[in-house]
């Protein structure tokens, strides 16, 4: 039902994906680009293009970037309905397409950029390549830059620690994850690689093709979570300070109690925010939270989810007698609620 | 600070990413090892009830993320720690070299009243790997470092095989108690018993 509405609205953008044509308004203009795929044209111009786009996408109101972006800012009448549908949970079969539409993967995508990032240095990106590369002429490419990429070791450590045991993260899956994280780190050196991104990248890889997953990651980290995963993690700190204030305002009893125990709610909620609830909530709930975050294009849902949990469990929390109990209860909230 | 009766012992585990902090904590608390740990984001926390010299304590163990930048987040929970466990991987020189940084960072952030005598315990983990053949940090070297930092107790552990984990945490509890301020209700003679931290401690405590 939803997809039919989207399609109606979107008559120029049909059926790139066969089963679901869920591309939303703002994505239309980039159909052509996307369809050329890793085409070899347009490569030289990607830098300029990229600047343009990032300006286009610069959110005054970040909620509306991808959904109300290009069509003369026209409000689409089914937004409310879509919103309520998204909050009800995106059907699993549509999730990959919907997420890409929400983040505006098509609009962000610059043909060839992803592969160029990976080619930038001819370092080994696959175990397999390691063997192949001896004969790979690219290896002696003059572009090779000896500058060490300090995030590399961290990525390697985290590959096997990303959804360990998940069937999709076999050797091929891990290689894709490595490429994705490497490309992102090169794309945005001010972030490079921060733990937690491995989970985001892994999550996207479960739902979309590798290159699209890269652009989804770019959307999330560059935009929705700008300043979150950089070396200083400023925005992350800001969010926790804001949350603390909101908790004080909304749940004064709880705040007073945690003060007495010498516990800060943010010790527990910090990791919730940073991981965008991955590994913190049950899987299905994680996906539901991500549905909303990607749809809204901002971090409000993190606050809403956290406040809802605190609201539910505030009464139990204020009965805890020591810091250990309080933290244990707080930690268990997320995992046991949904 | 906390004016409550003291039954909680707060322990912080620090060390480079991937040295096995989470595994050590889980081996100790849950007696389990998994090859499938996820990278720790921010900080994690477990508690365990422990009995020590006829008293019951709740051990509060904070497991931290190893990636350096997470230090810039609130590390407010370092404050009030009773013991800091430093972990390195005996198969990684870098993780050993970084111990100084972790120790100093902890002292800055936790700002204990007596930093020179604040109890640390060092664990050299993953001694099981490759039958010890990939080891690059010798026991001697580790012990020399411990000696230079005021005789920090040292243990060589395997979270995977459960080697020395229980012993190490016993020592951690003991040392955490040592940090207990005297004015609180606790018998000072016990402090004396564990007080001498000058033993060279061949993988032993105090």
UniProtKB/TrEMBL annotation, chain A:
Residues 89-297 form the Rab-GAP TBC domain. Pfam families: RabGAP-TBC. InterPro entries: Rab-GAP-TBC_dom, Rab-GAP_TBC_sf, Rab_GAP_TBC_domain. Coiled coil: none annotated. Residues 28-40, 129-160 have a biased composition (Basic and acidic residues). It comes from the Eukaryota. Residues 26-72, 129-168 are annotated as: Disordered. GO terms for molecular function: GTPase activator activity; small GTPase binding. This is Rab-GAP TBC domain-containing protein.
TrEMBL record, chain B:
Belongs to the small GTPase superfamily. Rab family. Gene3D superfamilies: P-loop containing nucleotide triphosphate hydrolases (3.40.50.300). The gene is LOC123182643. One of its GO terms (cellular component) is vacuolar membrane. It is a lipid-anchor. It comes from the Eukaryota. InterPro entries: P-loop_NTPase, Small_GTP-bd, Small_GTPase. One of its GO terms (molecular function) is GTPase activity. This is Ras-related protein Rab7. Its main location: membrane. It is found in: Endomembrane system. Coiled coil: none annotated. Keywords: GTP-binding, Lipoprotein, Membrane, Nucleotide-binding, Prenylation, Protein transport, Transport. GO terms for biological process: protein transport. The keyword Protein transport applies. SMART domains: RAB, RAN, RAS, RHO.
